[in-house]
């Protein structure tokens, strides 16, 4: 992917393509919210741009693996995989249906999903383990974990971070979808995360804060050559829960949503 972004013209073309993918993926997530079971709408929409940019890096074929640790945002992952050309079929009309792999949490029966996630905290060590295995094998590629800020309440996340820093896993990237919400309300009201960038730095990470909806910034972060680095990278990506759908943007009630077809059509028309 680095070569693709060598010139401003090429970079602009890539970002334009990714922006179109994100827009299409948002509409698909809304369609999944209109399924019989509904979906985790808010977190799927907040993480979409991160997933689209990360999967673009993975499409370079260098062994990079993207792990959605916040597995409840499976609808966002399925949509991102489809618009990125990694799924052979549109998952939206098949979401939640018996005999289909597009369940509420992703598993390896879905093309592009190597590890099952859903029990929060587990995807972070999966990605760190992938990065370590690539390094031991003398192979290229990143292990990219995408976690939620509420998920950081899981101790396993920090245990994995400690190991990643001790092993100097420069090819491990942890992206935090910091949308400020979780199942029961706001992260700030339940278990606040003050000084998050300082926490990661104290664990031995390089730390970058970014707009989690800025595809230019995200593409540049994932495209970077980390072979000369000595530390893992933490990206604190500031996002908006329900991003792109004005009716639910920033609302805690968007965490899990079931809507009818008429409302889905209305929301899709409003997506920006």
Brief summary of the model shown:
This protein has about 270 residues and is an alpha/beta fold. Helix content is about 40%, strand content about 10%.
Structure, explained:
The chain has 272 residues and is α/β, with parallel strands linked by helices. Helix content is 40%, strand content 12%. The strands form two sheets. Strands 1-2-3-7-6 form a five-stranded parallel sheet, with helices on both faces. Strands 4-5 form a two-stranded antiparallel sheet. α1 (8-33) packs antiparallel against α2. The radius of gyration is 17 Å and the shape is globular. The two termini are 27 Å apart. Residues 1-8 have low confidence and may be disordered.
For the termini, the CA-CA separation is 27 Å
The H/E string reads HHEHHEHEEEHHEHEH
Name the overall outline. Answer: globular
- Give the fraction of residues assigned to helices: 40-55%
Please give the largest β-sheet: 5 strands, parallel
How many runs of DSSP E, i.e. beta strands? Answer: 7
What is the radius of gyration? 17 Å
Strand order of the largest sheet: 1-2-3-7-6
Structural class: alpha/beta
Low-confidence stretches: 1-8
Number of helices: 9
Give me the secondary-structure topology.
Layout: H1 8-33, H2 41-58, E1 65-68, H3 74-83, H4 123-136, E2 143-148, H5 155-166, E3 172-178, E4 181-182, E5 185-186, H6 187-190, H7 196-202, E6 206-211, H8 215-223, E7 233-238, H9 261-270
Parallel strand pairs: 1-2, 2-3, 3-7, 6-7
Antiparallel strand pairs: 4-5
Helix pairs in contact: 1-2, 1-3, 1-9, 2-3, 2-8, 4-5
